Prior knowledge:
By secondary structure, the chain is α/β, with parallel strands linked by helices. The chain is built from seven helices and seven strands.
Amino acid sequence: MKKSAVFKFIDKGKSRDLLLIPGWATSYRIFSLMKLEFNYLLPVSFSPSTFLPGLLKALSEHNIGKISLLGWSMGGFLASEFALNHPELVEELILVSVRKKYRVEEIEGVRNSLVQNKKGYLHKFFGQCLLDKKCRENFKTNYFSQFCDEFDTEHLIDGLEYLARTELKPEMLSKVKKVKFIHGNNDRIAPLSEALAIHNSLDNSELVLLKGAGHLPLLRKDFQDA
């Protein structure tokens, strides 16, 4: 069953609003350590197919005319799709650990592993995402069990199917005023070369490299300074 898109707005008394979009197999809680100078709009629940219409509804309900978007991994694809269809609503686009496209054989391999042993595969996946020992311990203590319990195999496969059919093309971002890529130089999931290729084809983007970071740099102290 597809999850309905439900958003919550956190008014921090700031002048700007930021939508935080999590990646595959994670929720908005992955951003809990971040302290940015924005009010937050957070997707509490969603499936890829319900995300965009749900976001438009949330923007209207909270009277948000323009918003910045930060999308990590799969969230970067969703943020880019929104920017393509509604560039007039986008103040800034921040794409973290994104790539051009996932190969079909990659997706099929993940799907088979999930069906056989969901928790075992997620343990391996997040281990590949987190290269820093302290971040890995933090994730294991505060997030891993929660994410394993929150997402059933059907929901995770729904996300994989979205990734299998989605491609991040430079023209999706060309009408956005400001685009920033943040990428770990040791990302094992999303090769840096793919983000570089998209960045280099745009006139409106910047690229911030995080030395030693993997696919999930959100838990690192240096991320907020990027």
